[in-house]
Amino acid sequence: MSTPQALSPVPPAAVKAVRRFNRFYTRRAGVLSPYLGGDLSLTEVRVLYELAHQPGLVATELARELGMDGGYLSRILKRFEQSGWLSRAPSPKDARQSLLTLTDAGHEAFAPMQQKSREEAAALLAPLAPTEQQAVVDAMARIERLLSPTAAPRTRAAVLRDPRPGDMGWVVQQHGEVYAREYGWNMAFEALVADIVAKYVREFQPDWERCWIAELDGERVGSAFVVRKSASTAQLRMLLLTPAARGLGLGARLTDECLAFARHKGYRKMVLWTNSCLTAAREIYAKRGFKRVKSAPYEGFGQSLVGETWELKL
Question: Is this model's pTM higher than 0.85 or not?
Answer without folding.
Answer: no
